[in-house]
Amino acid sequence: MGFDDKLENTARDAEGKAKEAAGKATDDERLEAEGRTEQSEADLRSAGEKVKDAFKH
User: Fold this and answer.
1) Ordered DSSP codes for 4-56
2) Domain total for the chain?
3) pTM > 0.85: yes or no
4) Residue 44 and residue 7: Cα distance in Å, rounded?
């Protein structure tokens, strides 16, 4: 996994956590769900990059 990809995934995960927390604080279910979705996307991208790296070596 390239450094840029890792940084992007980390940023997306952090953004998702912030949205989820803001949604919980304001009782906004849509924002909370959007944050969880972004975190899941970051996790999936990270897993995909790790699989690609495993097959490179």
Assistant:
1) HHHHHHHHHHHHHHHHHHHHHHHT-HHHHHHHHHHHHHHHHHHHHHHHHHHHH
2) 1
3) no
4) 14
